[in-house]
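Example for reference:
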Amino acid sequence: MTRRALVCGAGGFIGGHLVERLKAEGYWVRGVDAAEPQYRDTRADEYSIADLRVEADCARALAGDRFDEVYQLAADMGGMEFISAAEPEIMRNSALINAQMINAAVAAGAGRYFLSSSVCVYRDMEVGEAELTEADAYPAHPDNEYGWEKLYAERLVQAWGRRYGIPVHIARFQNTYGPYGAWRGGREKAPAAICRKVAEAESGGHIEAFGNGSAVRTYVYVDDLIDGIRLLMSSDLEGPTNIGTRDQVTVVELVETVASVAGKTVSVRWVDGPVGVQSRNFSNDRIESLGFQPKFSLRDGLGQTYEWVAQQVGALRRRGARQ
């Protein structure tokens, strides 16, 4: 029989890609979000607008035949610029969504439950420190309130899982990038923001970026992340699992790679702004035990991302020229 999946946050970046994958695998999919998809049409069999902070809307999202899998990706989130400016909204809205959705999933008899968490649950690290395992999130010292809410959400859904016997799978996402995500307006992540700025710049010009370029990150392309999610949900691994790559790059190197795939030469004017942690380094042993291996190099993934963002920049310019 056709398996049924509910994707919460289906109108968002990762949620939209997840819907595409589930449909390609033969699932019947219901997508739920607070708004219509912004960057592309969803392939979900049903798509509902719902406020998942509200108990009745969560119950409505699960109405009908039993769902084999529930994917909870809905959250109030964005890049560091948004995270640093919207702390109360992030903690209130995401906490309400996560509390209401696990309650509704248990009440509806869902088969398996997935929670999207983040490597923001980990502390700031020095460059070169040894990898942290999932257990090393404790003693807890996240750098921002987004990380604290994610850590609380992990404990919340695991408590429900223990009480009611529903398998709970939790993925701690590394910095994820790719097409069909926020690329302007303050909620975009660093790869999309850099792609936009390079697309807007003339070759030989400059762009602005926060900090001094020394912060170290690992980036995972969205298709690779979806591979990890699907492996995790098909496994017996419960609890938090890091999903990402082991390739660490500085922000300077990120800019250089984007400029290279764009075929441009740009300089950077470093300005004050929210940067986040200096470094994080995580073990991927747990997800790799399921056979996970990223397929996209940073250059290949940024090539896909830049092409899409540059198209959006060009379309915006053309609309402006016609007005």
